[in-house]
Amino acid sequence: MADAPQISAPGRVELDDLDRQIVTILHENARIPNVELAREVGISPSTCLARVRSLRERGVIVRYTAEINPVALGFTLQALVSVRIRPGARHLMEQISDELRREPEVAQLFFLGGTEDFLIHVRVRDSEHVRQFVLKNLSANPAVALTETNLVFEHHTALSAGLRAVI
Question: What would the pLDDT profile of 154-166 be if each residue is shown by its tens digit?
Answer without folding.
Answer: 988 776 655 665 5
